[in-house]
Amino acid sequence: MSQTLKSWDLNANEDTMKDLYLCFSLEERDYAFEVRHLTEILALPAITTIPGTAPFLRGVINIRGKIIPVMDVRLRFDIAFKAYHDRTCVLLIELDGLPLGLIVDKVNDVVRIPVENIDLAPKIGESRSSRFIYATGRVGDSVKILINLQRLLTQEEAHLIKDIPGT
User: Which class is domain 14-162?
Assistant: First the structure.
């Protein structure tokens, strides 16, 4: 049985964000993060590149007059760049007061992953992308790779992004 959340599953007396994860795909792998960090999901808007930034920072977008830096999560995870398509979207999040857009291949769904279905990620090698992964979540017969959004940017990178004009 799928654990996909349906609107009628919500009880007004409960913490409706508890155990909820937004699932998205990169290179046919399922990733997820706590939905409470999500501000908005956007179709891929026009991106203005900023010279001299890290390769995974694709540039900035203008959302209702606010300039927001965008990161290609594929590139951040050391996955080869893939041309954007009609399912490519931007997930707007906020990290310590810094708005950030995450470009992902596609959004899948929102699922409930109870704490008893979460296992700390095994340490397999020391790849740069493994630092973003903190656990795996079991949902039915599938496994979601749970990412720690706080680790997407180092303190130095966050500081550099804050210096981008308009952010």
Answer: mainly beta
Note whether 130 and 124 are within 8 A (CB). yes
Give the full edge-to-edge strand order of the sheet including 142-147.
106-112, 20-26, 29-34, 142-147, 133-139, 118-120
Q: Is 43 exposed, middle or buried (0-12, 13-18, 19+ CB in 10 A)?
A: exposed
Residue with tokens 């308009």: 166
Model confidence pLDDT, tens digit, residues 114-144: 999 999 876 655 555 578 899 999 999 999 9
**Assigned token pair, 134:** 């903190």
Residue 143: count other Cβ atoms within 10 Å of its Cβ.
14
Block residue for tokens 């009628």:
8
